[in-house]
Write a structure and sequence with these properties.
The chain has five helices and nine strands. The chain is an alpha/beta fold. It has one domain: Glutaredoxin. The strands form three sheets. The protein has a five-stranded mixed beta sheet. Strands 1-2 form a two-stranded antiparallel ribbon. It has a two-stranded antiparallel sheet with strand order 6-7. The chain starts with 13 loop residues before the first strand and ends with a helix. The relative contact order is 0.24. The mean pLDDT is 96.
Length: 157
């Protein structure tokens, strides 16, 4: 299952983001980070999740939280996804899947008897010290963003 657990330090990384940006987790110390791992831009569940985090971004910001999503999609695909759905969250690209693997979310999956590698939809709340405060593994999208926000409010409100 996941290679990281609540209470552990979140593995550091520096990866490219939408808009030709860059995201280094250790540079975010001092602020909580909501990091959601998702399989693929522009698929129904991923779109719903990304829109949900974007719609609640102001509420997360009021708690001092930084919100970012990560998938193996390239930056150009993230840029198109953001433009199409007017997303406001940062999207991180991990094309070589090394960070996804470090977090234990790049796993073997199965659909219709076929095995393939993919992202296990997971969300982490990383506290200001860089430790994982809360982890949701095998996320079901409906109601998830509201649950993450409620937990962030309990932790940081």
């Amino acid at each position: 299952m996941s290679k990281v657990s609540e209470g552990e330090m979140a593995p550091d990384f520096t990866l490219p983001t939408d808009g030709n940006g860059s995201f280094t987790l250790s540079e975010k110390r001092g602020s909580p980070v909501i990091l959601f791992f998702y399989p693929k831009d522009a698929t129904p569940g991923c779109t719903t999740e990304a829109i949900g985090f974007s719609e609640h971004l102001d509420a997360f910001k009021k708690l001092g939280c930084i919100v970012a999503g990560m998938s193996p999609d390239p930056v150009k695909k993230h840029d198109k996804f953001i433009a199409k759905h007017e997303l406001t969250t940062t999207l991180i690209s991990d094309e070589d899947k090394s960070t996804l693997d470090a977090y234990g979310v790049w796993i073997e999956k199965s659909m219709f008897g076929k095995k393939y590698m993919g992202v296990n939809r997971t969300t982490l709340i990383i506290n200001a010290d860089g430790k994982i405060a809360k982890a949701w593994v095998k996320v079901k999208v409906p109601g998830h963003v509201d649950e993450v926000l409620a937990t962030a409010q309990e932790l940081f409100g």
